[in-house]
């Protein structure tokens, strides 16, 4: 595994101790996890802001409905269907 990641031994040593490799790996994993959580928070925050802006836009555009005239053609056709 050490060869796969290209980790070279320090000068004067024959091979890389596994404890050194896993120490580096642990540091990488903790940094990645912290960054992952931070990015997820940012994404969820942007998503909530987008949802709020959509709600605001749809709230502003209210559709007005009015009562249909009972003698109009549409109303007479609806009554025939029923």
TrEMBL record:
Keyword Oxidoreductase carried by entry: no
Entry-linked SUPFAM superfamilies: Formin homology 2 domain (FH2 domain)
InterPro entries with a match to the protein in the record: FH2_Formin_sf, Formin_Cappuccino_subfam
Name of protein: FH2 domain-containing protein
GO cellular component: actin filament
Organism lineage: Eukaryota, Metazoa, Chordata, Craniata, Vertebrata
Keyword match Isomerase: no
GO MF annotation list: microtubule binding
């Amino acid at each position: 595994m050490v060869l796969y990641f290209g980790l070279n031994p320090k000068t004067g040593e024959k091979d890389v101790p596994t404890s050194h490799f896993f120490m580096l790996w642990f540091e990488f994993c903790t940094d990645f996890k912290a960054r992952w959580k931070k990015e997820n928070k940012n994404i969820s925050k942007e998503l909530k802001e987008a949802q709020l802006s959509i709600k605001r836009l749809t709230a502003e555009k209210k559709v007005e409905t009015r009562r249909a005239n009972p003698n109009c053609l549409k109303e007479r056709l609806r009554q025939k269907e029923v």
